[in-house]
User: Fold this.
Amino acid sequence: MKKQLLAILLLALSTASPAFAADLVETRKANFKQSGQILKAVRGQIAASDWQAIADGAQKIADWAEKMPEYFPASAPSRGAAPSIWENFDDFKSKAADNRKAALALKAAAQSGDSDAIMGAVRTLGGTCKSCHSKYQAN
Assistant:
């Protein structure tokens, strides 16, 4: 009886796994797209003195960066992710943490209302994106 239950459980997990992996890939793609859109919107938000929108967007990026590694299990590869992510996962997690730290710095800059500080924080945040993409995004 225990062997039958184990077999059924393993079968269920193996058939659900591809769908689960596909959902993870789609979710992470959507979060990366949202982060890009947030960064693109900053110049207009500075022009409008919409510091709260910048701070809110930075928080969304920070929240995504914090959970980002969870969306990269070895069972969820995609065309956009280089295999080196899983070979150097500790480094990948470190880069996600750097991204979170930079996003929180952008939030703090936005709360100060200093447009020069905000643009500097955007450049730093963009640099964390580029650092990870240059190493872990598939060509």
